[in-house]
Every structure is written in structure tokens, then in C-alpha cells.
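request received
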Amino acid sequence: MIIAIIKLSGARRKEMPQKTAVLKRKNVRNIRHIVQAAFFILVAVTATLSVLAENGIQIPIPDASLHAICPFGGVVSFYQLISTGTLVKKVHESSVVLAVVGLLLALLFGPVICGWVCPFGTFQEWLGKLGKKLFGKRYNYFIPKKIDRWLRYLRYFVLAWVSYMTIITGKLIFQDYDPYYTLFNFWTGEVAITGYIALALVIILSLFVERPFCKYACPYGAFLGIFNLFRIFGIRRNAPTCISCKICDKACPMNIEVSTSKVVRDHQCISCLECTSETACPVPATVQMLALPGTVQDSFTKKSETSEAAK
Amino acid sequence: MSKKPLSLTIVPMAVIIVSVFVIGIAGANLLGVWKTTNTKEPVKIKTGEFAGLPNPADIRGSYSWADIGKAFNIDVQHLLTAFMATDPAVKVNTLEAIYPKEILPAGMEIGTGSVRLFVSLYTGIPLAAEEGTILPLSAIAVLKEFGKADPGLIAAAAAKAYDPSAKQPAPSPVPQPEKPVKPAEAASAVPAASSTTVTTIKTAPASEIAAQTTTAKTTSTTAAGTAETHEVKTGTVTGKTTFKDLKDWGLTEEKIKSATGGKIGSDSTVIKDWAEPNGLTFSELRTKLQALLDGK
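response:
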């Protein structure tokens, strides 16, 4: 089914006048924003109904706690599930199902959950729009590259700590520090002070840096980021047609230098497709999401290497 | 000649992502694995005298009084009377609203842990109650009539019970037993607010009690001086005991492993937290370790 959809979209692509092309780019970019908003609303409504139901206010719509619809709960439960057949406290079977869905998507396309689904990523993007208005071109470039590069690995320490502590205690240890949990439960009285502090920090930082939590602290993002190293579909830049305008670099919310990569294997890529020829890149078929293995490598990597060598 | 690679654009990506979620959830639903709530059935004790019985330690705040009554075969009316609740459908995590911390003695709590303790004393199924967990006086009245646990344990819980009619909430004074009491009874009779080294109430039945706490015997004859109180804690496995504590009390790694089935956590690991993720029930492990401590 996936291949059929891809082929269909490829066949429909045609040349068009520049103005129409610009309009189309905007519309196409909005599709991701619509998907993000839809997931945000879905999660917010579901979690709110769950809290209301716990307080005796029943609304005849299915509800589920935030933990029940968070795939990361499923990820940190894997060990306990395999070793004892039980789940970490507060985690439900639905989390494991979502974790498996996330894994499948990550194997195919990388961390699309981060770029398309995660409500907290969406929330940070919304705040980022305000930051862009405030700081213009300086936005998302405040932290020196050298420091930023190393800070990006912090989230792996968070992932290791959360995984270890969850295994040891059998409890969702990250809840008290989780700004995502705080965002959807701040009004319930169940949030620890550390959660409020974390959320406040993320809100402030989002005005300077795009997706600061995703970049530096999100343990689930760290886990999914590993799949960037061997995902089946990935972002590729066709060097022979690239005009090195670096628009793709500016479009990337995670500050990845797409313009210098043949294949984007950066662990921070969130597969948002903001850098592609469909959205940012002005040259058709230059930056694309392509199936990476086998013949694809021949058609891009080797050819481009050969042509560059010939020059 | 190389094949044209498969490319993916935004629209199909959106369709795929949404479809995978919808199909995944629908499929899980069909297979019966899409569960967003607990089953309200506590895990069963796996080994020992109480194997097959539901474990009171697994009662969660999201259980309603009716859920607990059903799981442990307890008359719901007894539960409601015990905690002065009215609606069987209400979750037990609402207890903190009925008994806010402000009205209780410092460090004491009537919450889900109290329900676990009550169920344990009512059914006679052992439990290591958490530090600071107390019962309301209404629960003691029910337990005295229907509780299956050792009367000494119920009396120990009564000594710390919260009396809402009392003007100043304070735990009962230190009981000065005229005759020697059972070790566990003595251990749990230490008043809550009198010392920072309050022990947990151990609700094992009489047969188990006999095998427990050698050090507690000291207390039974000397009441609750600070030194003795400390002695009660030393050598008694509680919900706060770490592997280091066991080693400090003289158990070798090999002995500990003999009780845990060959595994052992790091020194600072709390045994209670370690047990469940490693496939062990704390109450059973505690009994085994306690027997090792007593027999060393």
C-alpha cells in the first residue's frame, strides 16, 4: 500500500508556473501542520477527558490517560514486559501498541513521530513562531555550533538514566520531570514542581531555539533518533543539481547541514521534510525523501561522486 | 542501468503516518490488546503459602472500592464503613481528600497504602506496609470484627490509628505490655511520631511471625527507648531495606542470592523496588530474607 501511494504521488507531479509553485509549497507545508494540530487536539482532548472522568465528570466519549497514549511508556516497559510479563506502573497495553507503531515508522522513515505526531514538538514549534518574529534571522542560531553539537548528546544521557531508573524501580520515573506530561496535566494537581520548572524552561528556551526539548533532553527523541542511522527512507541531496544556496539548512528546525550531506544520517533529523524540493529547496528533485538501500546508492552517491571527480 | 529510486513526498507521508496509526490501533483493538485502563485485578502471589491469592501490595489508587471488594472477596460495605466512604464506584485515591495530611500527625498518611494495609489485615494475606501508613479508627472497628489477621497485628494497627473525633490528632502512646508480646506486634507497636525510625507494620500471619525478627524480642520487654527502637529496625526487612542493609546485617551475597534465585541488585537498590521488575514478589522475598537473617 505504501509503495502504491508513493508511486501515485510521483506520477502526479508536473511542471508549473512559479507563482503556482510557491502557493503549492505553502499548501504542502501546511499538510504537516494540519496533521500535527490534529494529533495535538486528539491528545489534549483524550487526556482532559480522562482527568475529568477520574474526578467523576463523565462525558460519553472514549478517554485514556496520557500515559496510556504515550509510546515512550511502552518503550521503557519493554524490559519488564520481556523479563516478567508485566508493565511498568501506570503504563497500559495501548502504550506498547503505540511503541510498536512508532518503531515500525522509525524503521521506515526515521523519527516521523517527532516531526509529525508528537504534541510537545508541535507545541514547541508554535512557540518558535513567536521566537522567529521576535528575533528574525538570529532565531535558532543563538548557541555556538561547537557547544550545541555536544549538547545534542545530552538526551542520550537522559534516555539512559530514565531507562535504568524505570527498570530498577518499575515506575515511570520521568513523569516528575516531564514537561510534556506537565503541559497536559498542569491543572490537575498531579504534577511535581520539577515538572513545572521543566515546562517553564522549555517555554522560555523555545523563544530562542527551535524545539529545545527535542534537541537536548527528550529521551524518546533520542531513542527514535538512533533509527536515522539505518532507516529505509531517508533525505538525500542530489549533489550535481544542488546550487548550494543553503536554503535547506535554514529550513531545518534541527539545524542540520543538509547542503553538505549526500544522505542525511544525522541522529537529530525528525523527518519533517521541511528541507525537501517540495518545500524549501528551489531546485526540483534535488533534496528528496528516497528509499536508501541498493540501487538508490548507485544512482545518487556513485554518480555524483564520479561526476564531481570528473570535474 | 539503475532503477529510479522510490521517492516520498509530503501528502503520501501524511497518509501513511495517519494510516499506520489507524490500522495499528484498529488491529490491536481487534486482537484485544488495545487496553487503555487497568484490569483492576491485582497480580497474584506466585509462591509460598499464599500462592494464587491476589497481592494487596498491588492495589492501585485507580481501583474503586467495588474493584477491591471483588478482587479480594471483601464485603464492599465493610470497606466503605472502614474508610468512611459512601460510593462504591469512587476510586480509593480520593482518600487523601477525606483525610488530608493537615489533619493527620506529621509524617502519617491515610491513602492507598492504608487500603492495602486494611485489606491485608482483613484477609490475612501478608504485606509490608509503607512507612507512615496508618488506618482510621473506623477501620479498626471493622477489622476487630471481621479481620482474619493475627489479633496482635490488628491491635498494633489500632495503636497508631487516627481518631477523627480527637481534638489534637496524635498517635496513641507507647504501649507498655505487661506480658511479652509477639515480635511483629512489638515491632509495629512503636509509636509513629515518637521516633524517626518508625518501622513498618508487618502483617504476616502468626505462623510467619514466629520465624521473624529476633531483635524485636528485645523490644517486647523494654518498650520503646530510642536505642531499642533502632534495634528493631536493624535486622528487619522492610519496604525501605537496601541490599547494603542486608550485607551490613551479616548476610553474604551468596545467601542473598539463594533467596532471590541467583540475582542481586546494587548496594543502594531498595529491595522492594527491585523485586517486581525481577519477577519476584516482595512479600515472599521479604519472608525468605527475614528467615535468613533470623537463622544466621
